[in-house]
Automatic annotation (TrEMBL):
Family: Belongs to the cornifelin family.
Matches recorded under NCBIfam families: A_thal_Cys_rich (TIGR01571)
Full protein name: Plac8 onzin related protein 6
PANTHER family from the UniProt entry: DUF614 FAMILY PROTEIN-RELATED
Record organism: Oncorhynchus mykiss (Rainbow trout)
InterPro entries in UniProt: PLAC_motif_containing
């Protein structure tokens, strides 16, 4: 009796991506849209360290994180880390290479873009999470609502009086 060989099926492992991993958002403003928010633009131009520290704090990171960029020579690592974290949190399209190029070649513009994005996202979150008004109805306790009920006075001494 002849044995027939079984067919061989090769299944290559694939990358599974859940819907939460897919980046569908884009930056709300372009890297050069400084005129969209002149307050952030002027803040970034006249006091860039203050803008960076404020943006870092608003994002939930340490206030002094951007000051670490002063100690690096050619790559602002803290700026790169914060920009990448912002992209991941808000599921914004892009890559680490894009982030690296932007924070290295145009650091002030990258920080202004991050500040504008954060301002927009925080404002949107505040509008979405507005709590509904709470209505509290105060009813008097049952003991006080019935005027015919009389309370017995407590004895004045430390111990109750003996029964007679």
């Amino acid at each position: 009796m002849a044995v027939q060989p079984m067919p061989v099926v090769n299944i290559q492992p694939g990358i599974f991506r859940s819907p939460a991993d897919i980046k569908t958002e884009v930056w709300s403003s372009s890297i050069c849209d400084c005129c969209d928010d002149m307050k952030i633009c002027c803040f970034g131009f006249w006091c860039p360290c203050c803008l960076r520290c404020q943006t870092s704090t608003d994002f939930g990171e340490c206030f002094c994180l951007p000051l670490l960029d002063i100690s690096t020579s050619w790559l602002p690592a803290a700026s790169l880390a914060l920009r990448s974290a912002m992209r991941e949190r808000y599921r914004i399209q892009g890559s680490m290479c894009d982030d690296c190029l932007l924070v290295t070649c145009c650091t002030p513009c990258a920080w202004c873009q991050m500040a504008r994005e954060l301002k927009l996202r925080q404002r949107t979150l505040l509008l979405v999470n507005v709590p509904s008004p709470v209505q509290i109805n105060m009813h008097p306790p049952q003991a006080f609502s019935n005027p015919s009920m009389h309370l017995q006075p407590m004895p004045a001494g430390l111990y109750p009086s003996a029964p007679q």
